[in-house]
Amino acid sequence: MPCLYITTNVNLAGVDTAAIFAATTTAVSTIIGKPENFVMVLLKGSVAISFGGSGEPAAFAEVVSMGGINSAVKKKLIHSIGSILNEKLSVPPARFFLKVHDTTAGRPVSSKL
After folding, report:
1. Which InterPro entries match (predicted)?
2. Which end of the chain is more exposed for a tag (fewer CB within 10 A), N or C?
3. Long-range contact pairs involving 80-86 (C-beta distance under 8 Å, separation at least 24)
4. What CA–CA distance (Å, rounded) separates 75 from 103?
5. What are the φ/ψ torsions at residue 97 (nearest 5 degrees)?
6. Pairing mode, if any, of strands 59-65 and 96-102?
7. Domain for residue 68, yes or no?
8. What's the CATH number where 79 sits?
9. Is 59 part of any domain?
10. Which pTM was predicted?
11. Is the pLDDT score of 5 beyond 70?
């Protein structure tokens, strides 16, 4: 189950968060290749964030997935989620940071006892 956790310093009062949830769920599902009904998205606003010493709109996000992550997927996630946050929350792509973690990385594909 992929999980996308987004934290931003933007106040979400009056923001159409349903549109953010829909767009990010579809993006994560499509890019990672997992069904939408397995994608979880958490969104937290009004968090004190300083990026480059500035309190202008910024966001930090983390994607955790069991498989489906490689360097091409990471690049697509950064671009897609960054574009969504720019469009929906006016967070410039240069003020967005994405951490990606594959929980299966480093594990053997199969093991036999």
Report:
1. Macrophage_inhib_fac, Tautomerase/MIF_sf
2. C
3. 80/27, 80/31, 81/4, 81/6, 81/24, 81/27, 81/28, 84/20, 84/23, 84/24, 84/27, 85/6, 85/8, 85/20, 85/59, 85/61
4. 18
5. -125, 135
6. parallel
7. yes
8. 3.30.429.10
9. no
10. 0.90
11. yes
